[in-house]
Amino acid sequence: MLKRIAIMLVCFGFVLAGCAGTQSPQKFSKPSDHPPKFAAGTTMAALQTAKNIRIGVKFDQPNLGYMSPGAKVPSGFDIEIAKIIAAHLGLDAGQITWVKTDSADREKYLTGNTVDIVVASYSMTPQRQSVVGQAGPYLVTGQQIMVRKDDADIDTAQDLKDRKVCTVAGSSSTELIVKKFHADPWPSDSYAKCVDALLDGEVEAVSTDGAVLMGFLINHVDEVKIVGEPFTTERYGIGYKHGDKAMCEFLTKTLLASYKDGTWSSAFETTLGKTGVEAPTPAQPDKCQS
User: Fold this and answer.
1) What's the pTM value of the predicted model, to 2 decimals?
2) Where in 189-271 does DSSP place strands (E)?
3) What is the pLDDT of residues 98-132, one digit of tens each?
4) What is the dihedral of CA 148, 149, 153, 155, to 10 degrees?
5) Is 99 within 8 Å of 57 (Cβ atoms)?
6) Residue 171: phi, psi to the nearest 5?
7) C-alpha Rg value of the chain to the nearest Å
8) For the chain, which domains are there?
9) pLDDT per residue as tens digits for the range 132-191
């Protein structure tokens, strides 16, 4: 059952990406013995000189960005993408400062210089790109619905009318389910709390990107299920400071290199692909704007 749902999420949830054959796992990128050289005055040169990069990530999304109890370093697909970026700066994982970044904090942390970049299931939207830069997409997914395993009343988004649905403040998921599907929103500050509320019967559903829900499904396969097909397209991008075209070009080049050398596929297979689903074909990043 888990594999069937997970395949649905990959082959339908990652709607623009398509599905590719499984590749042999490869090691994630590690800093070269000959670090790349960047032009003086660029963000990349400053980070390399500082020998540190502050990366905003989620701590509450299993297999995407998650800090396990007692752990000192988060894990998940977004975390591995962040490590690949650091490696292309000539930095190793020990030179990353992981900053817990909730959905509502992403723009604020970038504009306020709390973080250098954000890799946190960060859907690319025109509204966000008026405030911060977003390079990518590096993953394409779509909004879906999670309900309790014994729920026979909610099968599609149209069934959400007047039902209590948990979403996270600051995410792109809330507005759609309220305006289009007339759900009764139950806002939370984390998806983990949303899932707990679902299991406790406080809400009838949780709605967010399929990639996020898939991470929770792996941990609660006997208690919850994902219903319906995706009803949006969500393109995950890497957040950076607005107007920094050189950083955008570096991030885009890094993503393309990870697609070619297999590190992107390895990152997916060891995180979101742990159920045995195939890694989707990575989406082509957008062209950087001036």
Assistant:
1) 0.85
2) 205-209, 224-227, 234-240
3) 999 999 999 999 999 999 999 999 999 999 999 99
4) 100
5) yes
6) -85, 165
7) 18
8) 2-17+45-141+234-270 (3.40.190.10), 143-227 (3.40.190.10)
9) 999 999 999 999 999 999 999 999 999 999 999 999 987 778 889 999 999 999 999 888
Residue that the structure tokens 């339908």 belong to: 12
CA distance 96 to 172: 27
d(CA 146, CA 155): 10
The CA-based dihedral angle spanning residues 281, 139, 70, 100, taken in that order and rounded to the nearest 10 degrees: 160
Q: Report the 3 state secondary structure along 30-57.
A: CCCCCCCCCCCCCHHHHHHHHCCEEEEE
**Chain Cα centroid distance, residue 289:** 22
**What is the distance between the alpha carbons of residues 168 and 102, in angstroms, rounded to a whole number?**
9
Interatomic CA distance for residues 211 and 209, integer angstroms: 5
